[in-house]
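Subject: Interface between my chains keeps coming out wrong

I've been trying for a while to get a sensible model of this assembly. When I model each chain on its own everything looks fine, but I need the whole thing in one frame so I can look at the contacts. Pasting all components below, labels as-is. Any help appreciated, I'm running out of ideas.
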Amino acid sequence: MLSIKDLHVEVEEKQILKGINLEIKPGEVHAIMGPNGSGKSTLSSVIAGDETYEVTNGEIIFDKEDLLELDTEERAHKGVFLSFQYPVEIPGITVTNFIKTALNSCQKAKGLPNIPAAEMLKMIREKSKLLEIDQKFLSRSLNESFSGGEKKRNEIFQMMMLNPKLAVLDETDSGLDIDALKIVAKGVNTFKNNTNAIVVITHYQRLLDYIVPDFVHVIHDGKIVKSGDKELAKELEEKGYDWIK
Amino acid sequence: MNHLKEKLLSYFIAFEEQVEKKSFLHSHRLDSFAEFEKTGFPSKGDEAWKYSYPVLLKLLQNDYSIFPKELANHKLNDLKEYFLTAADSYKIVFVDGIYNPFLSHTSHQGHDICVLSSASVQNKYKDILNTYYNKLGAKQEDLIQLNTAYVRDGAYIHIPKNTVVDYPIEIINFSTGKQQNPLFIQPRNLIVVEENAQVEIIEKHHSIAPHEVLTNVVSEVFVAKGAQVNYYKLQNDLDTASLIDNTFIRQEEKSEVGVYTFSFGGNFIRNNLNFYQEGSRINSILKGVTLIEKEQHVDNYTLVHHQHPNCESHQDYKGVYFDRSTGVFNGKIKVEKEAQKTNAFQQNNNIIFTDTATINTKPQLEIFADDVKCSHGCTVGQIDKKALFYLQSRGISHKEAKAILTYAFTNNIIEELKNPFVKKKINEILAEKLGFNLQFSFH
Ligand SMILES: Nc1ncnc2c1ncn2[C@@H]1O[C@H](COP(=O)(O)OP(=O)(O)OP(=O)(O)O)[C@@H](O)[C@H]1O
Ligand SMILES: [Mg+2]
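Reply #2:
Try treating it as a single job with all components included. I did that and got this:
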């Protein structure tokens, strides 16, 4: 589904990713770990199409298509989703209107009609209920003065509504209390099936007890320095990163 | 420009022949004519016109017709589409500066919602006119003198004590484009709202066909103790139209007045908006959204004069500039020594979309009291790239994401509007200007 080869990325003439290789197949869950500043968010931003970052070498193929040739919104239409580490606050747009617009934009791009209002409401009700999101919350301005945890939960809500093929979750667990973590994990596990794939970026093994990865990768200084199964995450929890640097 | 002044002066006698000399307005006319003869138009070094003088100068080069002809009523039926609502409003309509009873819906039931030309020749209105007419305009700048000298008509609104007016009042000035020369009109509105009365007013200027028109409108608004007025100005005219709006508001204790100015179209718009607080516990609200393109120019020039203790003023203007458009915001807040415990807020935020659009924004604070809360702030920026990326990452196109963020930027002002017709109209205009799906804008 996703194939990243020798990806080099620069920002402001500084090399951040220095040759990333990653293969992801449908049905897989990949965890990416690594110290602060190692390039995890850079990788996820580049997958989503953030133009702040310049790809100087390598390729990203998604469902046989060159992802780097596509605009951000086109990637979303193809099924790429990023749960932001720092979701942007947008005063003046409600969560509901935002998600409706997003969904119908994706429909339009695929040549499909708008989702009927009743069906949309049903979806919103269903997903927000599963994530234990208060209805009142949905008529608030997008992310504006949401707590850290609320923002993350709202990202997962959007993911469930958009139902992407590839979901990259950048530190969706940070800032969540233990109950919220379980709820978010429940959402992710409900979403997960054998046709889609998930990349979870996290600092904590804790999350991986709930969202169980098939593979764990460690990024250090812009490169994947070690890959393994879920046992690797436990090892990192115990020993830190020094031994693999 | 001198040419225009000469023309105005030399035509005055001929003009006088056309208007009612027995009118109560006449003595004011003569005084102001004399005053205008002395001062003329704003001149180059005039600080108040610093950023808009070149545009004004250009406009004053036109060979205006000063006496528009009265046009036949037929074909005016299609003007109804410009009304905010077909039935649920009072309407005072002028066509090329001349009152049009056919399109209007005036009222004398428990209040007077009618026209100045007829009120000013009737004895029963004499007291009101004596007390209020030209009281705020008299000592003002040259353009007000010009208006007072050459006024032909305007709205006359008198709302007695404790009256809550059942419908909003629309004051609409159409220009037909059927006059030979460019048109220069001087509408004049007098609005008197007595104790604890409430009224909503909507003012619009509309060209039906592209034809050069310059409107120099003066509105004097008197708001007595405990009264409430919401005044909406919808400025969305053709590129051939220019507007100088001079609004003076005098408030007495415990009154609340909101003026909401939406400048979306026209060649040039200058809004001189002046609030005079004459009592305590007054609230003055000045809000506006400017969203312009091409070479359009909008200048918001506000004054809030705090003269008594425990009053508030809230100013919030948003500007969005495309292409080579230009904007000015000059907000003056004056707090007199007696006006302790004043709360005065002022905010002006702008987004510019191109390198060629410009905005000059300037707060002017003159504070002589010591126990006051005053805050002001202004920003000029571009659309937030991170926010754009966020929206696009959800599948929303670049164009639509930009439109949504622009809409969101202006949203706090629109959400606050109490009149549902105005709110709907503003949303429609914005959706059309920005090119996005309307359903989005309704929460
Ligand atoms: N827009 C940018 N401009 C300049 N430097 C950047 C930018 N984005 C990222 N960087 C730099 O690139 C490096 C990698 O950042 P990145 O956000 O990818 O790290 P991360 O692995 O996600 O870290 P964390 O665990 O703290 O979230 C850091 O040194 C960071 O300062
Ligand atoms: Mg990060």
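Reply #3:
Confirming on my end. Chain A touches chain B through 35 residues (CB under 8 Å).
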